[in-house]
Design goal:
Length: 471
Amino acid sequence: MKIEQIYTGCLAHAAYYLESNGEAAIFDPLREVQPYINRAKKDNAKIKYVFETHFHADFVSGHLDLKEKTGANIIFGPTAKPSYDAIIAKDNQIFEVGNYKVKVIHTPGHTMESTTYLLIDEKDKEHGIITGDTLFIGDVGRPDLAQHVVSELTEEKLAGHLFDSLRNKIMPLSDDLIVYPNHGAGSACGKMMSKETSDTLGHQKKTNYALRADMSKEEFIKELLTGLTAPPGYFPQNVLMNIKGYESLDTIMERGEKPLSAEAFEAASNETRALMLDTRDAKDFAKGYVPNSINIGLDGSFAQWVGEMIPDIKQEILIITEPGKEEETITRLSRVGYDKTIGFLKGGFKSWQEAGKEFETINRITVAEFEKMYQNETPLVFDIRKKSEFDSEHIIGAINVPLNEINQHLSQFPKDKAFVLHCAGGYRSMIAASILKQRGWDNFTDMIGGFDEAKKGKIELSKYIEPTTML
């Protein structure tokens, strides 16, 4: 069977391309659809269907642009109620793609419309299942997202539906089926996903905690809900965009790809309420940046941290990036619904400097310098990693303020006492540093390389590491 996984690491997202006899289907596409169109052209195939497993929360799907550009029909599972034209399939309904068949299996639980698609080859042999967020490798979809859109859908109710879907719809299927999930490790749509992005269903029945045959519904619900952290704030907003519709990516690109001189950029910043977003590497940002801009680097989990740190997806944004990265930046912002880019600094930060504009820097120290400081004065240390990371191991005396909670805990950072900031490797701590500087803090230092660098054997820091046993 000709099925391809198209994986995007930034979002830990998998879309799928299916082709047979000149007809193609796309499953759960990202916002930018041209790569899918190009893939079909390579096969001289026409995209017939766009299958959606559910209304996604962590990204804006490209289904509407694909329909507009190719004429493909959008397919949702039972109970879906989009605000645009789409085929709402019935449970067990079959769609033909060339010589292949795609069978609809309604699997509510992650959301009520969640649907798994069973792939059947030209010999009527069942090949695999595209599971969306119903079943991951090593995990299942979290059942607490839909309640942020429909309040009566409690996480307990959805978890119960998911238990029934897995037991009655998924587990009876053949062990040799290949599981094709929508996400891998790093996605916030589950809590313990594997780095693997496909597996056999039989192996998952043996290894996935949620598929244990001897588990009661009550045990399943308790285990599934234990340890869930709050979902990113942008999730409900993305769900609504996927339900109601959105602007074409072409329109968004046209609005955002406006080169602005340093003077025009400064004027736009002063005349609008736009947020200045600098997407350069942390080390480059630290050496010099436009005052009041915040740093979220393209080379990390960019889209996810944008979603975590910028509460309103309708926020106007001015971007500062490495020259030539403007289109990529606007595209990746749009993947999570941030469609209001209104221009970029032409020539990047260098043009700002050449125009003689004022700029700011971030103080940084190496781990070796931190060690000497620690020995002499025991500095105040803020660790902005996740609580689970902190609980596993941290510097003695450090205070944990996870990055995604920093705006709610700004009062913990003193303005009358110096402190050191660190994360695991330096990406998140620079985001935090830029936010603190924007809010008026100037008495801190960022630790280069973060906790991971501190643990390396070449720097004797182990005596300052405090293991913490997780209960």
